Amino acid sequence: MKNTHLSQTKKMLLAGCILLAGWLNYSFRPQTDDQEWLDWSNKCLSESYNPPPDVKLKKWELTLTNDYFLRLRKTYQHGKQEYYSFNLNRLNDVEYEGDDKAGILQLSTNADDIIVQTYEDPKGDIDSMSTMIDLPVRNMSSERLDSLKNALNYFKTKGGL
Predict the structure, then answer these.
(1) Is 35 exposed, middle or buried (0-12, 13-18, 19+ CB in 10 A)?
(2) Residues 51, 56, 59, 61: is their CA dihedral positive or negative?
(3) DSSP SS3 for 120
(4) Would you place residue 55 in the very low, low, confident or very high pLDDT band (cuts 50, 70, 90)?
(5) Where does 34-158 sit in CATH, by number?
(6) 127, 117 contact by CB (below 8 A)
(7) Residues in CB range of 145: below 8 A, 6 or more apart
(8) Around Cβ 11, how many Cβ atoms within 10 Å?
(9) CA 40, CA 28: separation in Å to the nearest integer?
């Protein structure tokens, strides 16, 4: 009977040491910093952005900058460019219409805070503002969407003007 009691005491002591080690490891773990959030957000956006198959679209760039601006630039074969930009502190809502395979990510602001510009457009250059930008995306699982929303909302609180 004495050995059983000693064995249980050793087990409880070992379990306590394991819990303490886990707690110490977790409590001294470095926090995710802004750069890691930016890197992940840019990777998610670049892997998910799915522009319509337009034979005239030569290239596109979709980035979240370190000063918390979301920027989309589309360049077409004949030099025309479309440019969209806004600071995430102006973000009002993130909505998604679609399924895991494809859909539209809608980013909206409270006022006309999204810069919309065209350059070298045969119809004339445009300089305007908008309250919404629609981003066609692919492979947007609910987990990925939730993570992206969390990241955008995190940067919303960081990007004061």
Answers:
(1) exposed
(2) negative
(3) coil
(4) confident
(5) 2.30.29
(6) yes
(7) 96, 105
(8) 10
(9) 22
Measured between alpha carbons, how far is 109 from 117 in angstroms, rounded to an integer?
17
Q: In the structure, what pLDDT confidence band is assigned to residue 151 with cuts at 50, 70 and 90?
A: very high
Contact residues for 29 (Cβ-Cβ < 8 A; gap 6+): none
| In 41-131, beta strands by DSSP E | 57-64, 69-76, 81-87, 91-98, 102-109, 114-119, 127-130
> Region 123-139: what's the mean pLDDT?
94
The vertex-93 CA angle with 88 and 98, nearest 5°, equals: 115
Structural domain boundaries in the chain: 1-30, 34-158
Q: Which tokens belong to 134?
A: 């629609």
Q: Which of 113, 120, 108, 116 is nearest to 83 (CA)?
A: 116
Residues 82-100 have pLDDT tens digits of 999 999 999 999 999 999 9
Q: Could you tell me the two tokens for 91?
A: 């973000």
Distance CA 29, CA 88 (A): 28
